[in-house]
Amino acid sequence: MGTGQRVRGLTLVTLAVAVLAGCGGGGEPVGPPPPPAPLGPPVTVVIQTGDGQQAEPGTVVPVKPIVLVKEGAGRAVPGVTVTFVVDSGGGSLQAGAAVSAADGTASPGDWRLGSGEGRNVLRAMVGTLAPARIVATAVVAPVPLSDQSVGSAGGTITVTRA
Length: 162
What we know:
Elements: E1 6-7, E2 10-11, H1 12-22, E3 42-49, E4 53-55, E5 66-71, E6 81-88, E7 91-93, E8 97-99, E9 105-106, E10 111-113, E11 118-125, E12 132-138
Parallel strand pairs: 4-12
Antiparallel strand pairs: 1-2, 3-5, 5-9, 6-8, 6-11, 7-10, 11-12
């Protein structure tokens, strides 16, 4: 077929122009998408995991606490130092500070609760921003005494666990 021959009512030249126009070939160069806007400074520290747990006093909570550092547009901010402090209840942390990862998260690692029953609070801080407070409760698990028995003449059952 030569240039200008008909293909179902269209000439090849018309068909080529229609294909180029449909592909964005209207003469404007097509390049890569613009880069994302640069990240702003951190504006919030929010709890991602580890809040509301229960564990025995003096033991490590089952889920490591993790916080997320965000900027004003809600995007995660990597490379930010987060300081972790036991606020109340006693206990200890594996690390007192961590740098937020590429996904904006940071963790103190293991959190061992205080030796007494009750509320334990961990505070995560970035500079002067409002801290995130993660709460766990230290609870002594009940020990069933159903395996023990006292004869009809009476007796004593000794519990050696606090």
